[in-house]
Amino acid sequence: MGRGRYPARLQVLPPSAEIAAQYLMIWPGREVYAAPELFPLLCSAALFGNDRPFEVDIGCATGELVCALAAAQPEHNYLGVDIALKPLYRAVEIAAQRGLSNVKFLQSDMLLAYGRIADASLDAAYVHFPAPLLRTRQRKQRLVAPALLEHMQRTLAPMGSLSFMTDQPDLYTEFLRLLAGYPGLRLRAVEEQAAIRRDLLASHYQRRWEARGRPIVRAEVERIPSSG
């Protein structure tokens, strides 16, 4: 999700019809709400026609992170989702320039898109530097909310992971508070998190906040396999 005025300042044109057909899906909120079954499942089989591991970047903005992941792991499929369309034009531009065939983008309210993610279909999900939206009137728009963890508990495959990063201590505290209510999800220990290389693939916001000297906090969460 965009932070500040960065998405509004983007100078980018919509992709051509051919490129949009390959990379970009636009889901009108009223239509998804009224008839979600008319929209494809968000999984490798439906989006890419194969059974490769599937990962999603929630609030992907201009797509630097998800495109870097797609380039680094061509054997995985990726979906970037954002509620704002203009940043996704830049994300599509990046993917097309790099010739990436294992990434797509979806413009949608994530609250509507969650329900189209197939059960246990996600190898990994990323929520990196979401807009804090800490005011009471903004709570319905926040990504860090019970809906996120409810659906991660349902859609992550056993041992699948949710990667959360923020420069906002209050948002991190809220994430950990909510996480305690979902026994199917486990916070990985510090030493386990240190072994994960994903933070080397820094997004625009990670580079931006690091350059300003802001402390960045991170949580890597794992889906616990069912004992049944």
Record keyword descriptors for this entry:
globular, disordered N terminus, 228 residues, alpha/beta, Rossmann fold
Give a structural overview.
By secondary structure, the protein is an alpha/beta fold. The chain has one domain (7-223): Vaccinia Virus protein VP39 (Rossmann fold). It has 10 helices and 8 strands. The chain has an 8-stranded mixed beta sheet with strand order 1-4-3-2-5-6-8-7, sandwiched between helices. The longest helix has 14 residues, at 85-98. The radius of gyration is 17 Å and the shape is globular.
Distance from N terminus to C terminus (CA atoms, Å) equals 37 Å
**Order of strands side by side in the largest beta sheet?**
1-4-3-2-5-6-8-7
The major beta sheet can be summarized as: 8 strands, mixed
Q: What oligomeric state is this? A: single chain
Number of helices: 10
> What share of residues is helical?
25-40%
The overall average pLDDT, rounded, is 88
Which residue ranges are poorly predicted, with pLDDT under 50 across at least 5 consecutive positions? 1-5
Task: Give the C-level CATH assignment.
Answer: Alpha Beta
CATH superfamily: Vaccinia Virus protein VP39
Indicate the CATH topology. Rossmann fold
Number of structurally distinct domains: 1
What is the number of strand segments?
8
CATH architectural category: 3-Layer(aba) Sandwich
